[in-house]
Amino acid sequence: QVQLVESGGGLVQAGGSLRLSCAASGRMFSAYYMAWFRQAPGKEREFVAAINRYATSTSYADSVKGRFTISTDNAKNTVYLQMNSLKPEDTAVYYCLSVDTSTWGPGTQVTVSA
Question: In b/e form, how buried is each residue of 54-89, taking b as 16+ CB within 10 angstroms?
Fold first, then answer.
């Protein structure tokens, strides 16, 4: 079983940056693909970015390409989401997902003010 905890959310002005972290613990050998999703108020949860454990493959939603970067530090069992050039429409609760085990973290709030 894998447990996930996100951190790094907060309030930032448009154009600013934040780095989210997702710390994983438990049976890490079963967590090969990791992803970030987000859910804005009144909207469905949507895919943001994904990465495999050895960072040889990444994918991004079109809405964040060129602004967000997903990375992983296997020594720390942590996945990061570097978010630059933030926009008010990026405001959401951001969730980390272990794709292989279908395990979600509790989420971290990101608010971008205009």
Answer: eeeeeebeeebeeebbbebeeeebbbbbebeebeee
